[in-house]
Amino acid sequence: MLLRADLNVPLEDEHVADDTRIEAALPTLSLLREGGARIVLVSHLGRPKGPDPAFSMRPVAERLDERLGAPLGRADAVVGEEVRAAAEELDPGQVLLLENSRFEPGETKNDPELAGRLAQLAELYVNDAFGSSHRAHATTEGVAQLLPAYAGLLLEREVVELSSVRDAPEQPLIVILGGAKVSDKIGVIESFLERAEAILIGGAMCFSFFSAQGTPTGESLVEEEGVVLASRALEAAEGSGCELVLPSDLELGRAFAEGTERRHLDGTEVPDGWMGLDIGPGTADAYAERIALAGTVLWNGPMGAFELEPFAAGTRRVAEAVAEGPGKSIVGGGDSAAALVEFGLAEKVDWLSTGGGASLELLEGKELPGVEALDDA
User: Fold this and answer.
1) How is 115-133 classified by DSSP, letter by letter?
2) Mean pLDDT of all residues in the chain?
3) Residue 21 annotated in active site
4) pLDDT tens, residue by residue, 165-191
5) Which domains does the chain have, with CATH numbers?
6) Are the beta carbons of 169 and 294 closer than 8 angstroms?
């Protein structure tokens, strides 16, 4: 059996820095092992331009070996005669981890030859890599066309949970969006303007909205394309039943640095020489009050530069409100998931997605190639 998992974890000093995605892959791995499957496991790691020791799966193999509680075989390549021989020698319940799929140039090109060579390693294909399923790659879409193809437990749960908040959320629905770029979130904004009671905006993307309104943004990060998109979203919101809410106060810094000079701004007109790095406490409290009354909360993107401790308060306050709120809580992948883990709140939300771009595209209503290719999609 060929199992595509999402083991694209952050590394630090050649060790796994956060094993959230490894943990998420374990239920499907365990189920297949208990059923006696011979598992050929494949994943990408990072964005290498070809074979690169810095992106080897070795650190992932070491952590996965610990978490599986059973010996893990590891191949030094993705395909080839040695890989095929190792796959044929697997006993029931054993796992063979292939090298980084992006070491093969045909992976991101969805090369039919690469997909065919991968298909020769197994009789069945299971996709459990939701976070990669918005890409039509050889290991997510190509091989699914050549073998009986099914969803793993994680991918199935991701689609069910995210589809539920998109299609039939318990009202009132509150959507919280942060991060740097409006262009990353405009599809979600427009999708939920007719479904949500309110969309609460934070992160650097709020400055594209302020710029669209003619509000000074100082040295804050402003996405040029985002200003046009923000203007479009503001206009669309006026004709919808959804309230598009922007911060009312901000935390400013002289530079994007831990020890920078900082000040609170009771308002949103950022002076020259300053940049907005977090929502202010007034905004954070107001957002928390809205979250506490929600039937469903969808959160994607931090409220500020939470990786810098002086500017983590807004994201922490919103994270606590989402974790403690009475409504169903769905948190998108990426930095918002990392924030929940950092604050020790990951276990307190109803669903923490492993997908970044995949989550956003599914919420927008787009089809995911890696999901649509499955026999049981």
Assistant:
1) HHHHHTT-S-EEE--GGGT
2) 95
3) yes
4) 999 999 999 999 999 999 999 999 999
5) 2-151 (3.40.50.1260), 159-364 (3.40.50.1260)
6) no
Nearest CA among 174, 177, 232 for reference residue 203 = 177
CA angle 170, 171, 173 (to 5 degrees): 100
- 181 flagged as catalytic: yes
Catalytic-role residue among 334, 355, 356, 370:
334
d(C-alpha 377, C-alpha 365), whole Å: 15
At 9-62, the pLDDT tens digits run 999 888 998 888 999 999 999 999 999 999 999 999 999 989 999 999 999 999
Which residues are within 8 A (CB) of 30 and not within 5 positions of it... i.e. 6 or more apart? none
Give the Cα separation of 101 and 138 in Å (integer): 9
Phi/psi at 250 (5° precision): -140, 160
Tokens of 224: 């040029």
Edge-first strand listing for the sheet containing 250-253: 262-265, 250-253, 275-279
pLDDT attached to residue 70 = 80
User: In the prediction, which pLDDT does 109 show?
Assistant: 97
Write the DSSP symbol of residue 13.
Answer: T
pTM for the model stands at: 0.91
Please identify which of the residues 67, 181, 232, 254 carries the catalytic annotation. Answer: 181
